[in-house]
Amino acid sequence: MKYMKQFGIILAISFSGEICHFLIPLPVPASIYGLAILFTGLLLGVIRLDSVKETGRFLIEIMPLMFIPAAVGLLESWGMLKPICIPVVGITLVTTIIVMVVAGKVTQFVIKRGNEIRKNEVEISE
After folding, report:
1. What letter does residue 27 receive in the DSSP assignment?
2. Collapsing DSSP states into helix, strand and coil, what is residue 49?
3. How far apart are CA 120 and CA 74, in angstroms?
4. Pick from 7, 4, 13: which is nearest to 56 by CA?
């Protein structure tokens, strides 16, 4: 019964995201509205983490299964995708490498900056 209640909360938030998508004339997917509503609710304490934690973890675990229908749809569209397959693969590889490099550099910067701040705090306290 606990899981049904948690799933109901997540479903209600998703539905409120759909309503926001319908009412707000912005090109933002309803799922993003739902995520923003859930995040805000968790931050403000309106929604307790315990009230969605287990079901959220379960949904994350089964997420790969949710991509199967989309993959089957791509297979059905192979005739249209075949001519642009090589450019799409190339763009995907290049952008993946760019994202990895930028994420690594940003992470290194943040760690280095954090170490400098801690070092300065230690010197000040001595």
Report:
1. S
2. helix
3. 54
4. 7
Provide the H-helix boundaries in the chain: 2-23, 30-44, 53-61, 63-66, 68-76, 78-81, 85-125
In the chain, what's the furthest Cα-to-Cα distance? 70
Among residues 52, 47, 56, 12, the alpha carbon closest in space to that of 20 is found at: 12
- Spatial separation of the C-alpha atoms in residues 54 and 3, rounded to whole Å: 7
| Mean per-residue pLDDT over the chain, rounded | 92
Interacting residues of 53 by C-beta distance below 8 A, sequence separation 6+: 6
The 8-class DSSP code of residue 25 comes to -
For 122, the token pair is 């230690």
CB count, 10 Å around CB of 59? 14
Residue ranges for the chain with pLDDT beneath 50: none
